[in-house]
Amino acid sequence: MKFWLIAPAGVLLFGLGACSTSNGNDSTGAGGGSSTGGSSSTGGSTGDGGGTNSGGASGSTGTGGGGATGGAGNAAGAGGAGGSAGGGATGGAGGSTNDASAGTGGASPDASSGGTGGSVGNDAAAPLTITATDVGNFNGAFLITSCTSAGTGFDCPNTAPAQVGCPQTAWVPPDGVPASEVTGTTYSEVFNVAGGDPSRIYDVTVRVRGQVEPRTYTGGQSLIKGAAGTGQADPNGTNNLLQIGGQPGTTRVDYNVFMLTIAAPQGAAPIPGRDGGAEPTFYAFNSVDSAHEGNHFNFQVDETFTFRVRPGSKVTLTNHDSNCIAIKNCGNGGPYGFASAALCEAQARTIAGVTLPATFRGNALPNGGSQPFQTQFLNFQVTNIVAE
What we know:
By secondary structure, the chain is mainly beta. It has 2 domains: 9-124, no CATH class; 129-387, no CATH class. It contains 1 helix and 21 strands. The protein has one helix at residues 341-346; strands at 99-100, 121-122, 129-132, 136-137, 142-145, 155-157, 185-194, 202-212, 217-218, 221-222, 238-239, 243-244, 247-248, 257-263, 282-284, 299-309, 314-321, 325-327, 359-360, 363-364, 376-387. The strands form 6 sheets. An 8-stranded antiparallel sheet has the order 4-3-7-17-14-15-12-10, with no helix packed on it. Strands 5-21-8-16-11 form a 5-stranded mixed sheet, with no helix packed on it. Strands 1-2 form a two-stranded antiparallel sheet. A hairpin with a 2-residue loop joins strand 19 (359-360) and strand 20 (363-364). It is globular, with a radius of gyration of 33 Å. It starts with 98 loop residues before the first strand and ends with a strand. The model is unreliable at 1-123 (pLDDT under 50).
């Protein structure tokens, strides 16, 4: 078998419309020419909408009422002519998406209509964050299964430094995922979803890259696509082995589980699925068919998917290996059957765009984290977070 690893912000800017008024009063005096109304004040400058997260501020009302009437002269000087109607200020330009009500147009002080309302703006909630107290940000997180010794021409032990033997107690997966296998080498990283607007659902899009050994899963949907999109895992290309929904299979429990699970906020109802069913809360990243499971493969993967959460949810990454043995990274091809560990490692691949850390979970990785000496790992990169 094998081993695993597991290992977004808004600003409100408000533009306020500046208004100016003028008095059109003549000084008192002979009736003289009627005092003209003050120059008609223009409507307030357009109220800018808030920044991308704020609702568009209402455009301020054009303050130009008619010009003030001229004071009466000694003679019956006519009052100043009314100033022209202030053109109502246009409403604040809206933020980028929806929530706050649109800015209202400036009120009409005379005959002119008020300004146009601003477009709908974003809410002003704090940005959504997904972080763990022990490993930090979900964006950039790793799951890593490293060899603790050279092993053979295709596998190696992956026990943690403080682990005694390969624990045979029953594995209890997070969030009620059923299982019928022993604990072995297992660890989880728990990320708390915070910030955002608690009344809204957020779509989190993630790209997952790495190299993993295969496992079957039951229920849900397995993509199982190779580099050519053939529907079969390709040991010589880059694969999408994403599993959406379901649970770990029970036929070859000696092969690794790499999974992400989502728990709703305490007391909250589950998020309804887009298709009317239940929203998936289980994802795995090494799902294959039975023809590939149980063989000495280590697949390169590149998978992108979107999961949905509310603030207050928990996202857990789990790496589980019941027999504490991981299929090594022996490069393309497979099933592996090299005569020695050195021959296997000489073929090891690297994953472009991913740099492994020198240490993981407080332990130094072989060769300072150089990829060719790793067995299996996954790297999680958040590419987008959008409020529905």
